[in-house]
Amino acid sequence: MNKRLNILLVDDDLKNAMLLKRFLEAENYGVTYANNGRVGWELYSSEKPDLILLDINMPEMNGFELAALIREHDKRTIIFFLTDRTEKADRLKGFSLKGNDYIPKPFYPEELIAKIEERFNDDTIADERIYQLGNTLFNVSQSSLTYNNETTAISVRQAEILDILAANSNHIVNRDTILESVWGDASYSNSLALNVQITYLRRHITDPLLTIISIKKRGYILQINPA
Q: What is the reported pTM?
């Protein structure tokens, strides 16, 4: 792999979690460990891992609750459920929460490695999408804007909106196109949410060469002015 993969392992079974952590580290993965869902959320928020390995039965916040919380903010980070809960209803719930895989315990560590390598092939790992917008670098993968050597984090949802605008810079993007791509439908409540996110994006963009222009009843333009 071209980039070291950072993994967040969330499991209250300390003994088995440490065995798995050592195995993954021996395969050159970076591993951060949390023993419950609450700590898992804190580490997810600070570490921004590439992959989350998530047990379900845990104190304070279970794996389903943590996955749901993550998916409110982040549709991209890969989540594998690792669990001894193998009932059909549990598997369906895991996938309804946009889990990317559901691996029953016990499993062979080599099986997990094969699934990770399949998911994160070299092309996927290397695919760090960056736009040069005026004098600003927009890193889609990291949801960040860099201008004058200062990097500003934006939300995943804001990055999704800006990604669409940047791909069509200096052209009108219809509101419904953004709403359906980012929220899944063009409802009134989502339309209001889009207005709010555009306001936040305008505050985050400090490059004078960049302007998000509203076109009444149509949509938005990310205008990039010449230097």
A: 0.56
